[in-house]
Amino acid sequence: MIIALAGQKGGSGKTTVAIAVSAELYARKKRVLLVDADPQGSVRTWGAVAAENNLETPTIVAMASNLYQPGQLPALAAGYEHTVIDCPPRHGDIQRAAMMVSDLVVLPCGPSAVDAWAVAESVELINEARKLKPTLQAVVLITRKVARTTIGKQARDALQAAGLPILGTELGFRVPYQEAPAAGLGVAQYAPKDPAAVEVRALVDELLSLTNPSGPKKKRSAHG
Q1: Class of 2-211 per CATH?
Q2: Kind and range of the H or E element at 105?
Q3: pLDDT, tens only, 66-116
Q4: Global pTM?
């Protein structure tokens, strides 16, 4: 499975989700490759923090818009069970390259209707990629949802117009999502009993069910 965390809008949680998902897969004893395709290098910084604290992480590599070329990511990913790519916002060339090697594109989206409207630009990139790779799957993930508000429902309603499936799992606006990377850990490993950990585990289950329909059914999603 190769998953790209993409989206033209910044601040939607791509890096946070990429780290959380890859760390959870790694905790499940999977061979995981985490690709930092964002020039900002936040994933690499997370890996450096983990190393300073003697914590194990998935294999982390940096790649750019040439990652789809022969001998690059496709060759490297063959040695891993799962690959997660953290894409930068506003770098269409890198996002297109990531989509061309991915099985699944996840578009994290904030909780407001305004965030949902911004997804349309990312959908255009996905449609372009599908002309060359018709099998490419793409889904939307609602992030930073505030519990007991109507904002999340408004975002879900607005996202319907994008024409992409919306994951049942939603990630809440929770402190561990901010604290875990600074500790060099994934969210589910940093605060294993927190609702954020429940959400991340549910998200990984749902992603696995999408890329392996014959495998175990996903567990009930956490909506916080």
Answers
A1: alpha beta
A2: strand 104-109
A3: 898 888 999 999 999 999 999 988 767 899 999 999 999 999 988 777 777
A4: 0.88
Integer distance in angstroms from the first to the last C-alpha of the chain? 27
Q: Is the pLDDT of residue 149 over 80?
A: no
Tokens for 33?
């490759």
Lay out the sheet containing 82-86: strands in order across.
Answer: 59-62, 32-36, 82-86, 2-5, 104-109, 137-142
List all residues 6 or more positions away from 95 whose beta carbon is below 8 Å from its beta carbon.
Answer: 4, 6, 8, 87, 88, 122, 125
Q: Collect contacts of 118-122 with beta carbons under 8 A, ≥24 apart.
A: 118/7, 118/8, 118/9, 119/7, 119/9, 119/159, 119/162, 119/164, 120/161, 120/162, 121/8, 121/9, 122/6, 122/7, 122/8, 122/9, 122/95
pLDDT range class, residue 146, cuts 50, 70, 90:
confident
Domain ranges of the chain: 2-211
- Between CA 171 and CA 222 the distance in angstroms is 8
Among residues 14, 26, 135, 157, the alpha carbon closest in space to that of 85 is found at: 14
Please enumerate in sequence order all residues whose Cβ is within 8 A of that of 175, keeping only pairs 6 or more positions apart, or say none.
196
Instruction: Give helix 175-182 / helix 195-211 axis angle, nearest 10°.
Output: 80
List the structure tokens of 153.
């429902």
